[in-house]
Amino acid sequence: MKPGWVYILVGRTGTLYTGVTSDLYLRVLEHREKIRSGFAARYDCNRLVFYEGSGDIRSSIDREKQIKGWTRAKKIALIEGMNPEWKDLSEGWGKPMEIPEHR
After folding, report:
1. Could you tell me the residue range of the domain that residue 46 belongs to?
2. pTM for the full model?
């Protein structure tokens, strides 16, 4: 069984986007680079503020549908339960790592 991730991105104007993927790292980078067109690209949703993993992509798809049906207030409560400061949880992803020199 393929693992899955449900995630929520936020845009500059506060627009929330809920998605599902089997590769969270790659999908977040795709959103940042606007590789995929659609809602998230149109509303510039590129900051990862929530994610939840499961061992089964089908469970993640069901969870995504559940969250998408929630009110905005309930989604915000979910985000703030994990990330009360609304930090970008993917900050630094995709940037070259600095490897310290050994002397």
Report:
1. 4-82
2. 0.88
Radius of gyration of the CA atoms of the chain, in A: 15
DSSP 21-51: ES-HHHHHHHHHHT-S-SHHHHTT--EEEEE
Number of domains in the chain: 1
∠ at Cα 31 (90, 100), nearest 5°? 40
Cα distance between residue 77 and residue 22, in whole Å = 24
Q: How far apart are the first and last CA of the chain?
A: 45
Q: Which residue has the higher pLDDT, 36 or 13?
A: 13
Q: What is the CATH number of the domain that holds 40?
A: 3.40.1440.10
Are 66 and 6 in contact, with CB atoms under 8 Å apart? no
Question: What DSSP element (H or E) covers 83?
Answer: none
